[in-house]
What does this fold into?
Amino acid sequence: MEKILSIENLNKKYGRIHAVNNLNLEINRGNVFGILGPNGSGKTTTLGIILSVINADSGAFSWFGNPNSKEDRKKIGSILEQPIFYPYLSAVKNLRIICDIKGVNYSEIERVLHIVDLFERRDSKYRTFSYGMKQRLAIAAALLGKPEVLIFDEPTNGLDPKGIAEIRELIINIARQGMTIILASHLLDEVQKTCSHVAVLKNGNKLFSGKVSDVLSISDAVELSSNNLELLSLVIKEFEGTTDVNIEKDLIVARLKAGTTIYDLNYFLIGKGIVLTHLAERKKSLENQFLELLTENE
It folds into this structure.
């Protein structure tokens, strides 16, 4: 796949704080790439560096396989701070100002307003917009010029649940058109529901990078049930490949030791004359994986 962004050994310090520590990342075309981490993990600093807003102390990054250049930055739309527009101007007039700055034809305004579902409010003053509408107008502004990449820093911050759902759905719909999206967030649910890939940062260090689906495919536990749950709970404890056997309502939940498969467990139980009515892997949530990564790296 075509590499859109390559980051190599990136470093940035603020006094004693190592905000970005020897970071390496690769993002391919079409990825919806989440940079996930708690506050102070280096997410915003990383985005600032790759947008040439902040200078790195060392390391390098390249867009579209080329050294960083003004021409390539024109292919990138971004929202790093809170949306800022003129409150007394309409959506259309605010976007005309952005068009003038970007050198984009006014004819694009109607297209982007339709994308963010603000066309019917195009002549309304910005000050009358809800916070969610203001965020959508900021996305419309970022879409002017038909960029190849969109970058968001905490796009749902401060929104109510309805606003969060609207922005999430908008990002997903934009991604479906083939846009590459880089999204920094501390919200696990946002990344899990929106992103195809994720990198986890803590104190400037990358703890994990890969597909969200790979994280979610990791089994956290095994669920079992039979017609005799009490007998099953006794027998399963004889199996050396399980740990933490617990009863949850009409299910037994057990964790498997490394190297033990669900098939090994089923074979053992069959040998003991137990027929299961339910056997399934319980997938590890991104939240569990994220918390484990943070705990392991204390």
Summary: The mean pLDDT is 87. The domain at 3-215 is CATH 3.40.50.300 (Rossmann fold).
